[in-house]
Write a structure and sequence with these properties.
4 strands; about 70% helix
Length: about 150
Amino acid sequence: MAREGLSRGDLLLLVAVLAAFGIADSLYLTWQWYDTASASWCDLDTYFSCTKVRESTFAAIGGVPTAIVGVAGFAILLSLGLLALRGRDALGPWPTTRWLLAFASSGAAIGFGLTLVEVFVIQAICILCVVGFALVLWILAVAGIWLR
C-alpha cells in the first residue's frame, strides 16, 4: 500500500491550527509583559528564564511588548490559512501560497533574530518565545511542502 501525502486541505488546516497556537502563545507572553509578575512559571533557572527575557530592554519597543508582533503575525498566518481553506487562491497579485510563505519567512526571520538576542545579548532563553519560534518554523515548513 503506497503512502499518501497530506492533502491541500490537511496542510491548510495544519497551518491554521499552528497559527492559532501561536496566537495563544503570543497573547500569553503579552499578558505576562503587562502583568509584570515577579516570576514566571516557565523560569527553570537563571538561563531558561522567561522573566529575565521579559524584563530586558528588548521585550518592548516604545512601551509596546514585542509579543504583539507575534500576535499580529500569527493572526495574519491564520487568516491566510483560513482564506485558502475557503477556496481563495489569490490575494491581489500573488497566490495565497506565496503570501503564506512570505509571512512565515518574515516571522521565522524575526524569531531567529530575537533568539540570537536572547542567547548572545540577554543570555537567557524564554521557553515560550522558543515555542512561538518553533510554531512559525513549522508553518514555514508546511508552506514549503504546499508549494512543492
